[in-house]
Amino acid sequence: MTQQDHGVATASGHLVPESLRKRAREIVSGLTLEEKATLTVGHDFWTTEPVERLGVPPIWLADGPTGVRRAQTSDGIGIGDSIPATCFPTASALASSWDVALAREVGAAIGAEAQAQGVQVVLGPGVNLKRSPLAGRNFEYMAEDPVLAGEMAAAFIQGLQEQGVGASLKHFAANEQETGRMYVDSIVDERTLREVYLRAFEIAVRTAHPWTLMCAYNQLNGAFCAEHRTLLCDILRDEWGFEGIVVSDWNAVNDRAAGIAAGLHLQMPHGATVPSVIAAVEQGDLDEARLDEVVAEVLAIVLLADSSRQPDTTFDVDAHHALARRAAAESIVLLKNDGNLLPLEPAPGATVALIGGFAREPRYQGSGSSQVVPTRVDTLLEELPQALGSSVTVRFAEGYGPEGAADLALLAEARDIAAGADVAVVVVGLPGSLETEGRDRAHIDLPQSHYDLVTAVLAAQPNTVVVLVNGSAVALPWAIDVQAIVEAWLGGQAAGGAIADVLTGAVNPCGKLSETFPVRLEDTPSFLSFPTMGDGTVRFAEGVFTGHRWYDAREIAPRFPFGHGLSYTAFTYDGLGIDTDELVTEGTVSINVMVENTGDRAGKEVVQVYVGECAPKLPRPRRELKAFSKVALEPGQAKVLQFTLGWRDFAYYDARAGAWAMEPGEYEIAIGASAADIRLSAREVLTSTHQAPVTIDRLTPLNVALKHPVASSYLQPMIDAMRERTGGGEGFEMLMLFMGDSPLRKFVIMGALPEEALVEIIAASASRPSHS
Ligand code: BGC
Predict the structure, then answer these.
(1) Which of 364, 650, 665, 744 is the most buried (most CB within 10 A)?
(2) pTM, whole model, 2 decimals?
(3) 123, 218, 267, 270: which to mutate for ligand 1, most atoms within 8 A of CB?
(4) What is d(CA 472, CA 466) in angstroms, rounded to the nearest whole number?
């Protein structure tokens, strides 16, 4: 099997080679009912059930996605004592690099470590979206935006699977909070689901073909995801062409036999459900042929995983640490840099005050199942002096107590050290207890002691840089007063070195926010409906207006917008060129834009392409992110970037028709340095062969029916008669204003249209569906 065979699909275009599928089917034909049922449930906490007599080995699944968390034994949860592995930047950090090549590289490194540890499937990446900054697991998820999340996840999966290790894209679906995660019913309208929450999964599945996908604990619109046929079969398999297996989140199963029928292949971990599957088959509630199909699919992935083992793999711990450092540095976002306070270039003999316990005892990952035991950990306290060199003195003060405890003595010491220095670097952020799987945050504040520390240091030292360490957005009340702010995220085990690299300019910052930073929690899209409605449901009431789409629509200025990030150099955008000719025939829109580095340092810019329909029929976001690219430019260098959009990039989901639709008309194509910093834009009139079909029934309003040529030919005489009766002019126009909105059946009731004519209109228009 070649490297490519593991990554995306085999030469036949399928994930699993036909030879392995055939072998899987043969094995199934030799199994007893009990053996088949057993194969749909994990053997223990981390491994699948073997069938020794037929040579089917177990495979090992391990968390993910920040690094490999392989427990010492397969029957223990192993949080805190797993085998050491490189802890890479958490997903919210990595996605802030907006660098798909980097995500692929990190995925590949994690894949190599998994091979070295005998792990066949890594449980990640996670593409649930940051519906609210309060969500406890935001650090483990990529972005607030489905395109950024989906593209970064796809690249990560490709990297992982190129190493012969499967991914498990999670948690499918609408698992956007921790509160009530085991039972909450996420109520999401179809259009929002398709355009936002499923979209990230769709991109990753279609692009990267993950071996496995993990279903979520929660319910979606009244059905548990583990038994959700629409999700697991109709959408995932039939529409998106998923060829891997669906694994339950750990203990997400409610009814094993129903799950098998609905498309859940593997229950993890082990459980007591095998007898229920056997009974369901024996009682005729579960078709044995369906069970056979599911078991064959499980075995196909087990065989693929087994044939992809590379037991001699070793990895270079130092090289992976260096990659973790590079990835962390690329993910850091320079939020503010007034007066070019950064990079720090202190004169020989200068003193830098380094303040904040996180510089000594870093927070570099979130809590819960993704928690890796690192191979080593860098601290800013060690790294900053090294980066600044021996001619500069770095004086450290703790500033606050553990878990954000206030300590007036530490505060006073910090103020004094800051006052006596030339510049102060203050590291503040969220304590571990506030960012964990299993619990949402109650607010978006830092501990009061951290706020007070920044205020005190600022009063003593105007040249103050704030470094933030957190996995999701926080409130920054003093943002206006602080000269420089650096968002360092939970950057993995090498974050200390990466922060030093950015502060000193060894790395020119090039990350951009993967989520909006609001001024207040009250400004956030889901403020009124997160986390639950108190009745076991959570309504995604903001609909498609989530993340940056909300701030645009409501014209609410965030503290820092989605996609924002500064550099030590400057970029200009020019020469927007759009070629739309081919869209008429299912083609594409080509966009060219030139970006130039006009500063005096090499740097990287993330160029973002947003699209909006100018006069949509139904409420649509003003701008949606559709593409992005990160480009490296030397000083004075310019490059032309090319983006290609397809009709789906202009489409919305028509829930009535159950299909994607694109209206012909005017669209804005905007090129931004962030969602709120649009540098160039153009309006284009686009044609479409994908308009929503107009279906006519008794309740179709007259104005809509008139757009259908068949219906309109029947209805025109009725309208002409009305014109004649009213004498045309203003009276007729007023009448049409009222009548235009009236359902067709009203005209039958009023006697303006014979019942037989309405029946004919419906029949004739059904045989010739049209488009609006
Ligand atoms: C988490 C998953 C994780 C699994 C195994 C669950 O509680 O939701 O993300 O992969 O545990 O640790």
Answers:
(1) 364
(2) 0.95
(3) 123
(4) 16
